User: What shape does this take?
Amino acid sequence: MNKAKRTPSSAPDGARKQSAPPAATPSEAQRLAAAILEVLAGLRSPPAAAELLAISLPRYYQLEARALEGLVAALAPRPLGKQPCLENRLKKLEKELEVSRRACARQEALVRLTQRSLGLVALAKPKPAPAPVNGKRRKPRRPVVRALKAARTLRAKADAATAGVPQESSLQPNAPHVGVEETRP
Assistant: This one.
């Protein structure tokens, strides 16, 4: 296996460490495992094993550490019974979603039927918000001051009617008096 070494000028600033890709084939993985076991058994030294594998000594120590972690993980006790997998969970959630959608559609049909039987007019569905123009959102519409004034007038008339005081019948607000400032919400 021919290994090209990186020179400081060819490697990016943050990528100066030499790292061989993981074992590409089972035979290469077996070669790595055999060399590591020979070092652990005392038949070879770590530098000799690194030279045999054509890797650097720090990389050899990384591979040895990974091999020991894998050994310990493989010997750990496994949980008993069938283990849940994500595919089964996804299928279960999709079934629940379909059941919920059907229940929602049934409830909507019942509401429409009840409204028709009582003679109520169904509320119109709200219109979706208009798409933003040029990536900018539209400013929210400010309330019309005339409408607020008419609402205040109606409220005043309703309060006066409950008190028994007669009021004029126009919904238009009275003109402000000269010198009196008009307050806006």
In short: Residues 22 and 46 are 19 Å apart (CA to CA). The chain is about 50% helix and 0% strand.
